[in-house]
Amino acid sequence: MLCNDPYNTHYDVYLEVYCMRTNIFLDDELVESAMELSGITTKRGVVRAALEDFVAVRSRKDLRELKGKIRFAEGYDYKETRRSGL
Fold first, then answer.
1. Structural domain count, the chain
2. Which domain holds residue 46?
3. Cα–Cα distance between 50 and 4 in angstroms, integer?
4. Judging by beta carbons within 10 Å of its beta carbon (0-12, 13-18, 19+), is residue 61 exposed, middle or buried?
5. Which among 3, 6, 28, 30 could disulfide-bond with 19, CB atoms 3.0 to 4.6 Å apart, if both were Cys?
6. Can you tell me the distance from the alpha carbon of 82 to that of 56, in angstroms, rounded to the nearest whole number?
7. What are the per-10-residue average pLDDT scores of the chain (86 residues)?
8. In a domain? residue 77
9. What residues does 2 pair with on adjacent strands?
10. Is the pTM of this model over 0.90?
11. What gap in Å lies between CA 43 and CA 32, rounded to an integer?
12. What is the pLDDT of residue 1?
């Protein structure tokens, strides 16, 4: 089934987006809290936003993985950068 997602505004002829329909039990209080915090008015919307946030957070590099892989420019002063508000 081709997904008729109202948020999908990409009109590429070769793009096909498939959705998976499923039934899940949600904690009503948790959903209400998420809707209040996000301003999203539908359960579908808040579940979608939560899944997008989950994927984004889990996709980020762990800073510990970068140890020893980053070289800073000569004369770089992170304390000065913090003080200047950049």
1. 1
2. 24-60
3. 20
4. exposed
5. 3
6. 26
7. 52 60 91 96 94 90 79 82 77
8. no
9. 18
10. no
11. 9
12. 40
> Token pair of 57, please?
């957070």
For residue 49, being part of any structural domain is answered with yes
CB 47 within 8 A of CB 53: no
Q: Which residues of 29-54 are buried (b: 16+ CB within 10 A; e: fewer)?
A: eeeeebbeeeebeeeebbeeeeeeee
Q: Examine residue 6 and state whether it is found in any structural domain, yes or no.
A: no
Tokens matching residue 32: 């209400």
Residue 11 domain-assigned (yes or no): no
Alpha carbon dihedral 39, 45, 51, 53, in 10-degree steps, equals -30
Read off φ and ψ for residue 30, nearest 5 degrees. Answer: -65, -40
